[in-house]
Design a protein that fits this description.
By secondary structure, this protein is of the alpha+beta class. The chain is 33% helix and 31% strand. It is globular. The two termini are 18 Å apart.
Length: 190
């Protein structure tokens, strides 16, 4: 598992919360997730997406304010398939379908490149939640963006002026993610 995930303030906190709520199950239920229990600083970077029709229908149920600003619009209540053509949202939709189909958490990275030096890095953590029973039906998604630009353009603009490059993608094994990160951290200290 990438050390960047566990060490990241937002993504690491969300992963630890998900693992705690999961317990010995494959994934926690949606009803187990309570935003009041989470660090309020992570909430603007979270999305809840409902996945149905064998992964072919994705509806944005809740989108944090930081993500809506970064996207350049608020997709809350909208379906992914209704968006204009977008390399980025096609990539994100693929991650959602994979997390849903495998009922497994996924960590992925990507970046936008534009102009001579423009770059916006994105780190994504997708965590499945069961709607009822043991099948995934909801995804809790934490996304963090970083750029050397003080005000990088929103993704709606970047889709037309920038190249979107896909980086690494890891399917995480529930229950081992925190243990692996702790071992990596100890190895880096030694």
């Amino acid at each position: 598992m990438p050390q960047a995930l566990f060490g990241h303030a937002t993504l690491g906190a969300v992963l630890r919360y998900w693992e705690k709520k999961r317990g010995k199950r494959r994934m926690p239920a949606r009803r187990d997730i309570d935003p009041i229990e989470m660090d309020r600083r992570v909430l603007p970077q979270l999305m809840l997406c409902e996945v149905s029709a064998h992964g072919n229908l994705v509806r944005f149920r809740l989108v944090g304010t930081s993500l809506a600003r970064r996207f350049g619009f608020d997709p809350t209540g909208q379906c992914l398939g209704d968006f204009a053509q977008s390399q980025y949202f096609d990539f994100l939709g693929g991650l959602m379908r994979r997390s849903y189909a495998e009922a497994a958490p996924i960590y992925a990275e990507s970046a936008f490149h534009w102009g001579a030096k423009g770059k916006l890095d994105a780190q994504h953590l997708l965590l499945p939640l069961s709607a009822s029973g043991s099948e995934a039906g909801i995804l809790l998604i934490a996304t963090a963006y970083g750029s050397d630009d003080v005000f990088p353009p929103p993704i709606r603009v970047l889709d037309s002026i920038a190249e979107h490059r896909i980086g690494l993608c890891h399917v995480l094994t529930p229950g081992t993610a925190i243990a692996e990160a702790a071992l990596e951290k100890r190895a880096n200290i030694a």
